[in-house]
Protein 1
Amino acid sequence: MNGPHDLGGRAGFGSIAPEADEPIFHAEWEKRALGLTLCCGALGYWGIDESRHARESLHPHDYYGSSYYEIWVKGLERLLIRHGEVHPDELSKGHMNTPGHATAKRLDPQDVPAVLARGGPADRPATTKPAFQIGTKVRTQKTLPAGHSRLPNYARDKQGTIIALPGHHVFPDTNAKGVGEAPQWLYTVEFDARDLWGDAAEPGTSVTIDAWESYLDAT
Amino acid sequence: MHDHPHDHDNNLDPMTARVRALETILTDKGLVDPKAIDAIVDTYETKIGPRNGAKVIAKAWTNPDYADWLAKDATAAIADLGFTGRQGEHMQAVFNTPDQHNVVVCTLCSCYPWSVLGLPPVWYKSPPYRSRVVLEPRAVLAEFGLTLPETTKIRVWDSTAEVRYLVIPMRPEGTENMDESALVDLVTRDAMIGTGLPQVAS
C-alpha cells in the first residue's frame, strides 16, 4: 500500500530542523510508550511487520498529525484490540473489564537485557538459490499491493543494479498478514538518481533499497 | 507512579493520560510489568547509544584487520565489541572515501541501528528528512552544514528491510598520533548516519 508512511520523494514537509542537544525522550509518556510497545511485542501475537502495518494504516490525517511515539501508541492500541487482549471500552474508560490472556508470556524485568540483546533476526535458512547476482540489472515491480509492502513507491517500476545479497529473509508482505514468513532472497538494489527522478536528480547521487526477490524482475 | 489504579484526570495532557491508561489496563491484566518498562527505558537512556558506534569506528580507524572484518561481516565484527540485538541483528558497514559518501535513511518508517546508535533523533524519524534525502541528498546535507565536492558521489541507503547501515566516516586528518580511545570522542552520531563528519582534532 502507498500509505502516508511512504514518504520518499514527497514534497511539502519543509526543512529538517535538527534539535541541538536533543534529549533521548521529550516527555515521560514517550518512555512508557516505548516500553509498552516492546513489552507487548513479547506477548507473541505479532511481529515487526504487522506492527509496522498497524502504524502505516492510520488515516493520513492522523499519521501526519501525530508524533513518532503517538503513532506507536495508536498502532499498539489497534494491535491489542485486533488480538483480543484489550476492548475499546476498556481504553475509553481507562480500566480493565476482563483479565489478560497471554499473561504467561509477560516480559519479566530480569529478562529484559537478554531479550534486547537477542533481538529478532529476520534471516531464515535458504532452500533455493538466489535468482540474481551482484551486477544483475533488475526492474522493480509496478503493481501496488493492497496490503503491506516494503517497496517504496518512488522505487516502483524502476531499473537498478544488484550490489549486494544480504541474505534470505522473512517476507514482510505475507508476515504482516499473519499468513507465514515465506522467506525469500533479499537484494540490495542501487538506482542512479536520474532513473528515479529524471532531470530533478542531483548529479552524482544514487539511492539503494533492500528488495525481496518477488519485487524484482531481470531486465 | 504505578500504584494508583487509574488517573484520567483533566490535569494531564492527552498523551500522558492515554499512555497512562493503557499502562494501567495492561498492568492490571497481567500482561505488562511496569518494572520491565523501566528496565527497557534505562537500557536506552544509559547503556545503548552512539558511544557504541563510535567505538566501532575508532577501532576500524586504528586496526586494518578489524576494518576488513567490518566490511565483510559487520554483524559479527560489531558483536565482537559486545553490541548486539534489537535493531542491529543484520548490520552492514558502509565506508566513506574521497570519491563516495554514504548517508542512511528509512523512508518507510524509522529503521535505525539501535544497537550501535541508540534511539533515533526526532529529525531522522520525521517526514522532512525521510521525504527529501532520497531526492536531494546534497541539499539536505548542506542544511546539516555538510557541503561535499561535486566529485564526491553520494549513495543514500534506504533501510527498507531488516539490514541496518552504519556509516564509517573517514579518519580526520591530523589524528595520526591519537589512540583509539581518544578517537572515540571525535565520532559524532551524525557522522555515523552520514549527515555529518567527525569532529576535527583539537
Protein 2
Amino acid sequence: MSYRPCGVYHQFYRQDHAWWQTKFVWGKMIFLGIFIFVLFPKFAGMYLISVANVVGYTILSAMGVQLLIGYCGQITLGHAAFLAMGAYTCTLLMLQLHIPYPIAMIFGGVVGGIWSVLFGLPSARVKGFYLIMTTMAAQFLTVEFFITQYVSQIGGRGVAFSIPPGTVKIGPWMIRNDLDVYYLMAILVVIFTFIMANLGRSKIGRAWIAIRDNDIAAETMGVNIVYYKLLAFFVAGFFGGIAGAFWVTSLAAVSPEHFHFGWSLWLVGVILIGGVGNIHGVIFGSLFMTLIPEGLKFFIFILTQNPFFVNIMPFLPLLLEKFLFVKEAAFGLAIVLFLIYEPNGLSYRWWQIKNYFNLWPFSY
Amino acid sequence: MAVTNEVQLKVENIHMAFGGVQALLGVSFEVKKGEIFSIIGPNGAGKTVLLNCINGLYTPQKGKVSFEGEDISRLKPYQRAQWGISRTFQKLELFRGATVLDNIRLGRHIHMKSGLLSCSLYFGKTAREEIEHRDFIEREIIDLLEIEHIRHKVVGMLPYGLQKRVELARALALNPKVILLDEPLAGLNLEEVEDMARFILDINEEERWQTTCVLVEHDMGVVMDISHRVMALNFGEKIAEGTPPEVQKNPNVIKAYLGEAEDLYVTRR
C-alpha cells in the first residue's frame, strides 16, 4: 500500500491500475531512463561501467531468487545452478552450432527454466527446510557434478569454454567491450523489471503471493498450487538462464567456478538486504551488495597509500591483498545487522521515505 | 430465494478418522438449493472436519460427496472451487501481506483467463480483464459488504471484525453456488454479529446472489433465526436434523448440549 500525494483523484480503474499515476512520477522515470541510457555511459569511466555491469548482473540473477523466495515463498539456495545452465547452454549453442547470440540466449533461458522445474518438483510435497535441501542438491548436482564432469568435456576444450572475440553479436551490433555489455545489461534489466512488475499485479503474481501467505486458503480459492509453484520455478529458472547467458558476454571464458555455491548464497543475501517480496528490493540490494564492497576496497586502498595509517595498522596491505575475505566478512556483517535492525530491508525504508514526502506536512 | 426441492450438495455416509480418533462416523445429509443449512454441535463434534471433507482439504476414508448430482469425492480442493464451492475459515486464513483488494481479486482467480505471456506484458487483454474484474468487485462485493473505506489497506493490520468480512468478500468473489461458512460470527461483537447475519441473509436471498449457505455456528440465536434447516452433530454422529424448532425440542440435542439430568445434578453439586 502506498499513499498518493494530496489532490490526486482517479475517475477510472485504469488510472488506479497504472504504475506511474502522476506527472511527477512520469518525469522522474523519464529522467531515470535518460540517466541510465545516456548520461551514465557518457560520463562514467570504464571502472564505474564495469561496476555497473556487476550490479546489473546481480539484479538479473537475484530477480529469479526474489520471485521464488519473495513472491512464491519457495526458498532456493541453488540459483547459481540455473544461471550455469543458461550460460552453458548459450555458450555451447554459440560455439558448437554457431547459433546467433539472441536465440542462444533464449534457449539458455528455456533450459534454465526446465532445469529449475526439475528441481522444483519436490516443492509439490515438501516445504521449508526440506525444500532448501533439494535446491541445494540442484547446486551441487548441476555445477559440481553435471557441468564440471560432463558438460565441460564437450568439444574437448578443457575445463573452461573460452569465447573468441566477435562471437557475441546481436544482429550487426558486436558486443566487444564493457560499454556494449552495459547497454545490453541496461536493456535486460528494464525488460526483467517490466515483466516482474506485470506478473506481480496480474493473476499469476497474485496466485504466487497467495501461496506464499497461505497455501491452504489459496487452494480452496481455486489456485492449483502445484502448477503455480512449478510455474514460479520455471519463470525463476528462465530469468536465471537469461542472466547466465548475459554474463557470458563479459566473461572471457565460461567455467564452473563462476557459478559456485557462494554466489547462490550471495543472491539470497541480496534480497534479504534489499527487501523480500519487492522489486525495489532486488535493485537496492544489488546496489548495496556491490557498491559497499567496492567502496570498502577503495577506502582500504586510500588508507594504504598513507604511511601514517599503515604505521598504525600494519595489516592494511594484507587486507588489500586478501580483499576477498574482507568482502565475505562485510557480507556476513551486513546480513546480521540488517536482520536485527531493518528486517524489512532497504525497500521498506525507501517506501517510508516516499510516503513521508507524499504526506508531508502531515504525518497521516 | 425460496428454498427449492433440488438437492445441490449431498453427503453420504462419511467416515473420517485421524489415527485412533473417529472424527466422523457415517454422517449423511442433503442440502437443497437456496437454503441456509446450519450444522451445530458441541466442541469437537466434527463440524469443521465435515466442512473440510466437503471442501476437499481432507479425504474421508469412506463416503461420497456429490455436488449437483456429480460425484466430487475424488477432486482436489481447487477443482471443487472451480465447481462453485467456496468457503471461509474458523481461524482467519487471509493473505496477510496483501491489500484487501488483492485478497478479493484472488477470489476472482478462477474467472480470469490470461496466460503467462499475456500477464507478463499486461497489455490489451489482461489489462481489460483486470478492469472488468475490478469493476465486478467494486460494484457487487465491496458495495454489498460495505468495505469501501479499507479497500487499499493491508489485511494484516485490520481489526478482527473487518478481517472476517474481508474473508467473506473473498469467498463471494468466486461467485460460488455453495458457500461454506465456518463460524462466521465467532469473536464478533453484537453489532458485527448483526451485520454479518444480515450479509448472510443478503447473499442467500438477493436476486443477484441466491447462494446456498452451509453454516457452522455456535451462536444459537442467529442459527435458529436465519436457518431453514439445522443438523446437530455429537462425537461425529448425526443426532438430529430438521427445522429449527424441531431441533430445539429434540431430546438428543438437549442431552448433547446440557448433559443428562443426573449428570447435571452431579456436576452442579
Protein 3
Amino acid sequence: MSELKPMIESRSASPQLESPQRRRFVGAAAAAAGIAIAPGMLLIEVAHGRPEDQPASSAVRWGMLVDSTKCATGCNECVTACSTENGWTPVAESKHPRQAPQWIRKLELQDPLTQMETSLPMMCQHCAEPPCVDVCPTGASFKRADGIVLVNRHTCIGCRYCMMACPYKARSLVHEPLNDTQKPDVPRGIGCVESCTFCVQKVDRGDGNTACAEACTAAGHNALLFGDMNDPESEISKRLRELPTKQVRADLNLNLGVRYHGI
Amino acid sequence: MTKRLLALGAVVLTTVALAWAGAESQPKAGGAPKPVIQKAVKGEQCVEPTDYMRRNHMVLLNQHRDRTVIEGVRTKKYSLKECINCHASEKTGSVAAAKEDFCVSCHSYAAVKIDCFDCHSTKPQGSMAMHPLNAETAHYKHKLAAQSARPVSAEEMARVANE
C-alpha cells in the first residue's frame, strides 16, 4: 500500500484510500431510503448490479484481486476466456502477432536473486487517476462512474497517446478491419484503441463477475476475485482487508482497481 | 414579322425538344432505383412511428449511444442492438451484408455512408452461436457463462468444465 494512514483513521473509516467517508455516507443514505420503500430489494441491487435504466453509480467501485500465489504457471484460461467473451483474436492465431490486440496477458516473472517464479495476469488496472484519460486529446478515454476505465470508440481518433501514457501496456490499437466478426455486445473496430473493460457488458447485465474470473474459478485456481471495493461486505473487500496486497507501480499513486497478492 | 416567326419557331422547337427528352427519360422515371424496404422480421410496430423513424433514427441512436457508453444505461428502446434484432434480413441474417439489407438499402439510395458497422456487429445476438461449425463453440463453457442472464456460480462452472 502506498499511503500510510494513522490506524485510528483507517479503522474508523474504511479500507479505501480515496474520499471513502462521503461514498459511505451516500451509500448508507441510499440503503436507508431503499429499506424504507422495499426491504430486501435494495440489498440485492447493491450486490448484483442495478436496474438497466439506471446509470452506473459512483457508490460502486469495481475492482479485482489477483492472488498470484494461486495463479498457475502455464495456465492461460483467463486470456482465452477474455478473447472468447470479447471477440478479440488470440495473439497466437493472429496474422500479425506483434500488433495484435491484447486485453489481458499472462506474465511469468522470476526474481534474479532468489529464482522465485511468479505468474500473474496483467491487464488494464482501472486506475482511479488514469493517465490515459489525462492525455486523451478528444475525451474518448474516460472513467465511468463505477471506476471502469473505457474508450468511447465514437470519439477515439486512434492517436495512441493513451497507449504511450499507460504504465501497464494495457491498451492496443486495432490495426485491421474486423469484417463483422465482432460480438453484438462488444463493438470494436479498426482505428480505435481498446483494452480490458472489466467485461462491462456483463457488469451491466448484473452478472457481477468477469469472464477471466469465471474461467479461473472454473479451472479450479480461484486466483481472480472480482467485486465492489466500495462495499465493505463484498468478498473482495473482505479479502483485501485480510491479505497483504500491492499495486503495481504504486509509486505512481494512481489508486488501482486491480490489486495483487504475492508479488 | 420575321422576328415574331423566329420567336414562335424557337418556342415550338423548345417544346418539341422538351417533350422528346421527357419521352426518352420516361422508362427510368424517378431516377435511381427505389430502396427495397424489408419488413422487420420480428414485431409489428417500431418503437416510434415509421415516418418519424425514417427522419430521426440517427438522432435517437446517437442519444442512446452516449447514455449507454458513458453512463452504462442499457435500455432496449432505441438501442442499435434491438434495431438489428428486428430488422436483420431473413436471407443474410444481417442488416448490412447484402444490397437489399435494411440499413444498406436506404443508405445507398440516399448516398449517406454509415460507419456503424465498422465496429458494431450487423447480426443479432446468438444467431451463429449454436452453429456446429462455428469456432466459438471451442470454448463452450465460457460461452455458456457469457450468455447466462444470471450470475453463474463456481460450482456450475466447474460442472460444465468437467462434462
